[in-house]
Specification:
By secondary structure, the chain is of the alpha/beta class. The chain has 25 helices and 16 strands. Bound molecules: phosphoenolpyruvate (PEP) and magnesium ion (MG). Magnesium ion binds next to helix 19.
Length: about 575
């Protein structure tokens, strides 16, 4: 058993707490029957488990309601209803009484029956409830079997934990109780995996790609992790913990220093103003984005409102959410990305189709255009919320001009329908394109004729250019946005946008990484949309980097033959104007 592991630091910060192992599989239920005289005790055990779970769900729902709002907390209401369903519990009790099943065997039996029934049901509502049933089944079985991950679902106030998993899905990461989960470790995943982006946005230190974590980290063991260096220590010594505390204090001091510059404008030493917007994935991030001075939202991800949940939000819910975001940034634009579902981001209602290559599959704008009943309510919600605010629509994963023209047509149709119905709404909203495929880069001139703006999704652009799965830990070293192929495409997109006179920004993770920011400034980008916790750091970089230094580095990077050379050029340029030791904390 190894005491030290190294993975990929995906969300900075130092954290330590006992490990809770999260398993995504259903617990194996041993075949156990009971004796007739044990029936009452077994029924009691079942009822007690239900009580605990309902109480946990109510508490969790309330905490989420207070922190993130009504929409986010609804999932817990739906789950509470299933957990308390008298008909279900009645059948489970009958199985215990009549068949002498153990409580867990009986519950599993009933849950399997329900799953089969609901999955085959013609009712969309029941099919959508499957994810909730799945969650409740996990909780019930974990509790009845005394599995250690039962602790995940009911943590006493004030206690902390580091969650260790094979793989963290975005849906799961969204649902983690952020007050208790102080760190994340997973065997799979990389810096731009969606779960990593969420951890970063939420400010939870995280290490992914930690191969062998489940083998080497026993449940309950104290785990120390550094989300910057990717280092993990199991059962750290007192000295190691002291050292971690010192590093954490240093980091807090840097954060404090950076926070102190919040009222200063993001202007380079030579006077070029850079527009820094925020990426908002979840309602919780509105507040930090505002506090860190974001000039509006350059990427409002909408799919994290639905991944890990059973149902899609209604038009009214979406309109309310968009309005809420817009009110938080008076006078600034909010760029709403249409549902970017697919790959690792699917709500349960859409999970039915398995694909061999989901990242090359039916996803994103393709899903929206194929499913008008999904896309049109979102378009209407945007139009309604845009009645008196500057809201804009951004289309992800575009590869063809007709995807843009069809979306604009649908938007116009919905605007006409709203007008005819006398609903207060904008006549139209600007429609822009995310540049995140090489196809979009190559036809950027054509796309620019139809687009109000471009925003480069450097995460997917890197994935699709390098043919490297962005979530695959084994390929993490090959996933490099500093490859000259990416640098050149960044330059091409900017040039195409400038020729057409439309704004061009970057909203992928590059816009949140100090040395990538230097590169982007050098290439001529002056609009960045950044993960809210990274806004102070990015502003600090902007304020330190003289444009001639950045331009020279970018110029050389365009002519470099590989990513190592680009990295060296950026480190050298950074070393001239930034205290890189601070960044390597
Ligand atoms: C991107 O691909 O760079 C991007 C911003 O979109 P997402 O990370 O949500 O795929
Ligand atoms: Mg993307």
């Amino acid at each position: 058993m190894s005491r030290e592991l190294v993975g990929i630091g995906v969300s900075p910060g130092v954290a330590w707490a006992p490990a809770v192992i999260m398993r995504m599989d259903f617990p194996e239920v041993p075949d156990r029957s009971i004796r007739p005289e044990e029936v009452e005790a077994e029924v009691h055990r079942l009822r007690e488990a239900v009580q605990v779970i309902v109480r946990d769900l109510e508490e969790l729902g309330e905490r989420v309601r207070q922190r993130a709002g009504e929409e986010e907390s609804r999932i817990f209401d739906a789950q509470t209803l299933i957990a308390q369903d008298l008909e279900v519990l009645g059948s489970v009790e009958q199985l215990i009484r009549n068949n002498y099943f153990s409580a867990e065997t009986a519950y599993e039996f009933k849950a399997l029956e329900l799953r089969a029934l609901w999955a085959a049901s013609g009712s969309a509502h029941l099919r959508e409830r499957l994810a909730d049933l799945h969650a409740i089944q996990m909780r019930m079985l974990s509790r009845l079997l005394g599995r250690d991950d039962a602790a995940l679902w009911s943590v006493p106030e004030g206690e902390h934990m580091v969650v260790v998993a094979h793989e963290l899905s975005p849906g799961l990461t969204v649902q983690l109780d952020r007050e208790h989960v102080v760190g994340l470790v997973s065997e799979e995943g990389t810096r731009t995996a969606h779960a990593a982006i969420l951890a970063h946005s939420l400010g939870i230190p995280a290490v992914m790609g930690a191969v062998g974590a489940l083998e080497h980290i026993p449940a309950g063991a104290m785990v120390l992790l550094d989300g910057q260096t990717g280092r993990i220590i199991v059962e750290p010594t007192r000295e190691e913990l002291e050292d971690a505390k010192v590093r954490r204090t240093r980091r807090h001091r840097l954060d404090f220093q950076l926070e102190g510059t919040l009222d200063q404008p993001p202007v380079t030493p030579d006077g070029r103003e850079i527009v820094l917007m925020g990426n908002v994935d979840l309602p919780d991030e509105i507040e930090p984005a505002v506090r860190h001075g974001a000039r509006g939202v350059g990427l409002l991800r909408t799919e994290f409102l639905v991944t890990g949940r059973a149902v899609l939000p209604t038009e009214d819910e979406q309109a309310a959410y968009f309005g809420r975001v817009a009110r938080a940034f008076p006078g600034e634009a909010i760029i709403i990305r249409s549902f970017d579902l697919g790959g690792d981001k699917f709500p349960a209602a859409f999970k039915a189709q398995q694909e061999a290559n989901p990242f090359l599959g039916w996803r994103s704008i393709r899903v929206c255009l194929d499913h008008p009943e999904l896309f049109r309510p979102q378009l209407r919600a945007i139009l309604r919320a845009a009645a008196d605010r500057d809201l804009q629509l951004m289309l992800p994963l575009v590869t063809r001009v007709d995807e843009v023209t069809r979306s604009i047509e649908m938007m116009a149709e919905e605007a006409a329908a709203l007008r005819a119905a006398g609903v207060r709404a904008a006549a139209s909203v600007p429609v822009g394109v995310m540049i995140e495929t090489p196809a979009a880069v190559v036809i950027a001139d054509k796309l620019a004729e139809r687009s109000a703006f471009f925003s480069v999704g450097s995460n997917d652009l890197t994935q699709y250019t390098m043919a490297v799965d962005r979530g695959n830990a084994r390929l993490a070293e090959r996933f490099t946005p500093h490859h000259p192929a990416i640098v050149r495409q960044l330059a091409q997109v900017l040039a195409a946008g400038q020729r057409a006179g439309i704004p061009v920004s970057v909203c992928g993770e590059m816009a949140s990484e100090p040395l990538s920011v230097l590169l982007l400034l050098g290439l001529g980008y002056d609009r960045l949309s950044v993960a809210p916790p990274a806004l102070p750091l990015v502003k600090w970089v902007v304020r330190q980097v003289p444009l001639p230094v950045a331009r020279a580095a970018a110029e050389a990077a365009l002519d470099a033959s590989g990513p190592d050379e680009v990295n060296r050029l950026l480190r050298e340029a950074g070393g001239r104007c930034l205290d890189l030791r601070l960044l390597d904390l």
